[in-house]
Design goal:
Elements (H helix, E strand, L loop, with lengths): L1 E5 L5 H11 L4 E3 L4 H4 L1 E2 L2 E2 H7 L1 H24 L6 E4 L2 H14 L5 H18 L5 E6 L2 H11 L9 H17 L5 H4 L3 E5 L8 H18 L3
Parallel strand pairs: 1-5, 1-6, 2-5, 6-7
Antiparallel strand pairs: 3-4
Helix pairs in contact: 3-4, 4-5, 4-6, 5-8, 7-8
């Protein structure tokens, strides 16, 4: 199992759709965003978070972790090298939740309870992947794509927030700082996604070639 990571708006869902075309034997598992993007009293939980992060951070991150852990455990049972999951329990914790903590979105009690879930799910129930696939792009390009897709829940998202999430991904996947020793050993494939890979078939073909080579090298991990 491989985990596809990257900032908001970098193109993860689009990349997975293209993988289906170029590598038909790969099974893709998309992020369960419907669980926190459904309408609640006229607003999605995600939209509520962007508007009132201190009120909704604990609720959103706990739900996201449980949903991602459920899918992770389901896919790891297959023990297959032909599965790619969109985003993971790890980026949920090491990027989004840690950013929430640093930003003061959690109370001490909320963070303590949240970490009880972390200890149980991340450390006891979920096995590390064969590798991470990191779609990397500048925050400005990600925000431009976010604006272009025009999702209601993302209307209030700022460049500062996108930059923060980018920095956490770099710390997690490039510098490998503040993560468990087990995850430090997991190989990472970095794909530069600043240039469009939807209209430009040459770019997606280069990415696919690198992905297939990465799979060959990590089959014994």
């Amino acid at each position: 199992m491989y985990l596809l990571e990257g900032n908001i708006g970098v193109g993860k869902s689009t990349f997975l759709k293209l993988i289906k075309d170029y590598i038909p034997e790969m099974e893709v598992s998309t992020e369960p965003v419907e669980n926190w993007n459904n309408q609640i009293y006229g607003q999605s939980l995600l939209e509520n978070f962007y508007k009132q992060p201190k009120r909704w951070a604990y609720t959103l991150e706990t739900l996201a972790m449980i949903c991602r852990a459920r899918d992770h455990i389901k896919e790891q049972k297959k023990d297959s090298a032909n599965i790619i999951m969109e985003r993971s329990i790890y980026s949920g914790h090491y990027c989004f939740a840690q950013n929430g903590l640093k930003s003061g979105f959690f109370t001490n009690l909320e963070w303590t309870i949240y970490n009880k879930w972390v200890d149980f799910l991340l450390h006891e129930k979920c096995a590390p992947p064969r590798g991470f696939i990191y779609l990397q792009a500048n925050p400005e390009n990600c925000l431009e794509r976010i604006r272009k897709r025009n999702r209601m829940s993302e209307k209030t998202m700022s460049l500062a927030y996108v930059k923060d999430i980018h920095d956490w991904h770099e710390k997690f996947l490039i510098k490998k700082e503040g993560i468990s020793d087990v995850l430090k050993k997991v190989p990472v494939l970095v794909l530069d996604c600043n240039e469009d890979f939807v209209e430009n078939s040459a770019n997606i073909q280069k990415h696919i070639a690198k992905l297939e080579l990465f799979k060959e090298k990590t089959l014994t991990y």
